User: What shape does this take?
Amino acid sequence: MRFVIVTGMSGGGKSTAMRLLEDIGFYCVDNLPVPLIDKFTELLTVPNTEISKVALGIDVRTDQSFSQTERILRTMRQNGMVFEVLFMDASDQVLLKRYKESRRMHPLCTPASSRVEEGITREREILKQIKKEADYVIYTSKLLTRELKEELDRIFVKNEEYNSLMINILSFGFKHGIPADADLVFDVRFLPNPFYIEELKYLTGNDRGVQDYVMGYAEAGIFLDKLTDMLQFLIPNYMKEGKYQLVIAIGCTGGKHRSVTLANELYGRLKRQNAGYGVTLSHRDI
Assistant: This one.
């Protein structure tokens, strides 16, 4: 029996994760009342059950109920119940944006305090312990649904080792500002700019002509080799320190040619390494 507790920040992608787990054969139960969790887990231990994979979704509703949930989970572990915890998260800015787009109230908002920001802050405080103890933490701030599916398949289908680090490679243009969430920023404006080549001006780093032009300079390959070498040193140490998300930003002037080309190349290199972390790619200013 594989038993997974799915929890996390409201708006962090828990419902999507539950749907994807259902697609790969999990029997999914969401928003089960706290007093029924004990009874539900007892049913999972019935001999000869046909259910082999179960996912239980748990939400934050009130401080008291989630404290009760944490006590129940501790008791389950003490009684020998084996389960894994999947924690879904996103940045506060992304969570706030999702709430504004959906026009929903945060579950911890009250008539006296209806600000979503306050609800998010309270929820983080309530969930900090279960996040700390979670087996898997997935950040969905820059994650597409298909990329989330790949991560869940890697954990629950392929049973590959998971280190809870999601690397986001982001191209950008300096004239539009440095990304606020970047952990590492690299400037590739030392390379010749395809913008000044008439036939390349209106293309991007996703087009073969621009890629050939940029990568035709030896400096581009040397830069990638040195950057890859540095990341091979940094990433295991970030994992050791328990870092969940790493945003690597590569910038050029406009964010359309050089940065896009090199971000694509770096993404391919890290993806091929398959070293126990997730990798995503996005182009902010394309």
